[in-house]
Each structure stands twice: as C-alpha cells, then as structure tokens.
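Morning F.,

Quick status update on the modeling queue. The single chain you submitted on Monday has been processed. Sequence for confirmation:
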Amino acid sequence: MHATPVLIGALALLALAGCNSSAPPPPVASAPQQAVNGVTPSTFRLPGGAGCSGDVANWQAIQDNDLQTGHVTQSVYDQIRGEIAQAAAACSGGRDAEARAMVRASKVRHGYPG
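Structure tokens below.
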C-alpha cells in the first residue's frame, strides 16, 4: 500500500497541530489600569451643591471629566474654564441668577443641554 502525497501532508499537519495545541499560551503582561478614552469612570460624581455655587461646581466637574476623557480639546476646555471663572465671580459677588444664567449660556454655547 502506497501513501499518497496528500495523505502524508495531512498527517504532517495533524502532527504539527497536535504539538501546537498542547503548548501553554504565552503569558500576557498586565497593563496598569488607565482611563479609557471617551469613557467616564464609574467613580465620577457631580459635586452637587445649591444655587449658583452648585451650578458652577458641577459645570467645572463635567468639563474636567470631558477633558480627561477626550470629549473636549484643551483649547475648548480653556475657553469654558474662562466662562466658568466669570460665572464663579458673579456667584461670589452675590449675583446668583446672573451666574446661573452664565453657566446655562456656556453649556448651550458648547452643545451641552442647558
């Protein structure tokens, strides 16, 4: 009985597959935990608060998170940060309604729900 070249090739492949399947997989190096771009961490919480100080703090926290996750560029963040600073100054000056309106306007201007 003569073995055909196809049969010999098939047997060789099976032998090689058997060798490869019994080898343990190579170890995978564990990477340090990093923030996934575009994903807010599960630990993110708004600071809350009442009145204009709460609005200002929440808007700042949202922007810090959006910069960190890549939702805004540094230049947009800097622009919004300036708007937040103006709202914070109005708030600390006792102009609650004006400060809250400034936060709302900033949100709308940059595509966030007001």
